[in-house]
Amino acid sequence: MNYNIFLLGTVLILSKGVMAASDQDLKISGFANFSADKSNVETKYFDKIGNTITYTESSIGLNFSKKINDNLSIQTQIFGHDKNDGIIFDWFFATYEINEYSKVKLGKLKFSGNLYSEIVDVGSAHHWNRLPTEIYGHNEAEVAMTIESFKGAALKNTYDLNDEELKLGFEIYTGVSEAAEEGELGFEDMHGIVLIISNDSYNFGLSYLTYSIAEEEHDDHEDESIEAQEDSMVEAKLNLLSAYAKAEWEQFFVLAEISRSSSDDVPKLDTNAWYISTGYRINKFLPHITLAQFDQDTGKSQKSISIGINYNLDINTTLKLQFDNIKVNNDAGIGEVFFEETPGETVYITSLGLNYTF
Q: What is the per-residue DSSP string for 27-91?
């Protein structure tokens, strides 16, 4: 664990009140996630979780929002995670409100095409200790079912449809992923649209993204088949279609997402992924279950069942216990998606997490 991250986070949290008090137009909030994870196999999940207890899922973030005038504001997040080399600016953008319905965003933006893609690092914003990797495995697995952030511009519009607080929103955006700019596997020539209909109980979203894969350089492989596969992906054109739905009735909730990535240039990259999850709140407890699946035409696949229970210690703090049952298949015989090597047995992961917001 990178303790420097949490030392800096402590300093930032303690200074929050001082900075906010000195500037009424400056809003500060944040979160911290702590997690201990262990599996039953030696080969590591996302190059992190193995058969010894690890704490690499822990992270901390601090959000700043500064109002410049009635129309212009600036937002940023300082984020620390063991996947990063210390502290990074996870997003940093300016927002200009054209009118009460429309606004433009410019800078390093969070991707809005999935239900949780804009808040994927905020553990308290969802009920899992670890989001379904079949959809949200992009950080480590280089799986194109979603991304986390990109540099570009977006136009967002929101309209009230009726007196029942039903809202229609759509966002169009263009840009390039940060990974592509750093010479890693990433997206460039990104163009997309997101449509959302929601009220206090329901949330439905549909998004479409077209992009090309960019990779300036990668490590040479002894296996020529892997080398050829990576070379064929560069500059390939892909399309990503995603949809999600979430509904809540008092203590009960259910949600689902599905994504399909397709490419005429590299048909074997065609990928389908989905999950469905449900839970029921019982006082301070929240038991939940999730089914998820990932299938790629290369022959790589993953199926998982996740069972968990959460306990709200207070309004800002949640304790989470989660058990994952994971089955992986790799008929392609080359490359991996979620594990270092294809495990020869069912994988069981136990995770204990603590999420805090302030």
A: EEEEEEEEEEEEESSSSPBTTTB-SS-B-TT-EEEEEEEEE-SSSEEEEEEEEEETTSSSEEEEE
Render pLDDT for 127-167 as a digit per residue (tens, 0 to 9).
999 999 999 875 555 555 676 678 999 999 999 887 668 89
266-307 pLDDT, tens per residue?
777 788 999 999 999 999 999 999 999 999 888 888 999 999
133: Cα within 13 Å, side-chain hemisphere:
24
Measured over the CA atoms of residue 165, residue 110, residue 135 and residue 236, the dihedral's sign is positive
Q: Which residues of 178-296 form beta strands (DSSP E)?
A: 186-198, 202-214, 237-249, 252-262, 271-280, 285-296
Question: Coil, helix or strand for 14?
Answer: helix
Identify residue 285 by its one-letter amino acid code. Answer: F
Structural contact between residues 23 and 29, judged by C-beta atoms closer than 8 angstroms: no
Measured CA to CA, the distance from residue 146 to residue 168 in angstroms comes to 22
Residue 3 has pLDDT above 50, yes or no: no
> Cα(59)–Cα(121) distance, rounded to whole angstroms?
8
H or E segment at 106?
Answer: strand 102-110
3-state helix, strand and coil shares in percent for the chain, rounded to the nearest 5: 15, 55, 30
Long-range contacts of 309-318 (CB under 8 A, 24+ apart): 309/285, 310/127, 310/285, 310/286, 311/284, 311/285, 311/286, 312/284, 312/286, 316/124, 316/356, 316/357, 316/358, 317/354, 317/355, 317/356, 318/123, 318/124, 318/354, 318/355, 318/356
Pick the CATH number of 3-357 from 2.40.10.340, 3.40.30.10, 2.60.120.10, 2.40.160.10: 2.40.160.10
Q: Given this model, what pLDDT does residue 120 score?
A: 85
- Tell me the pLDDT tens digit for each residue of 296-331: 888 888 999 999 999 999 999 999 999 999 998 887
Q: Which residues pair with 180 in a beta bridge?
A: none
pLDDT band at 180 (very low <50, low <70, confident <90, very high): low
Amino acid at 233: M
